[in-house]
Amino acid sequence: MLCSKNKIALVDCNSFYVSCERLFNTSIIKKPVIVLSSNDGCVISRSTEAKTLGIKMGEPYFKVKKIVKENNVKIFSSNYSLYGDISRRVMKTLKQFSPKIEIYSIDEAFLDLSSIKDKDLLEYGSIIRKTILKWTGIPTSIGIATTKTLSKIANHVAKKDSLGVINLINTQQIDKILKKIKINDVWGVGRQLTKFYIKNGINTAYQLKKMPDAWIKKNTNVFGGRTVMELKGLSCISLETYQEKRKNCCVSRSFGRKVTKLEELNESVTTHCLNAAEKIRLDNQTTKKITVFIRTSPFQKDKNYYVNSKDIDLPIRTNDSIELVKQALIALKYIYKKGYKYQKVGIIFSALSDVGIYKKNLFSLINSEEKRKKLMKAIDYTNNKYGRNALSIAHAGLKKKWNIKRQHYSKIDTACFDFLPIVKIA
Question: Are the CB atoms for 288 and 313 separated by under 8 Å?
Answer without folding.
Answer: yes
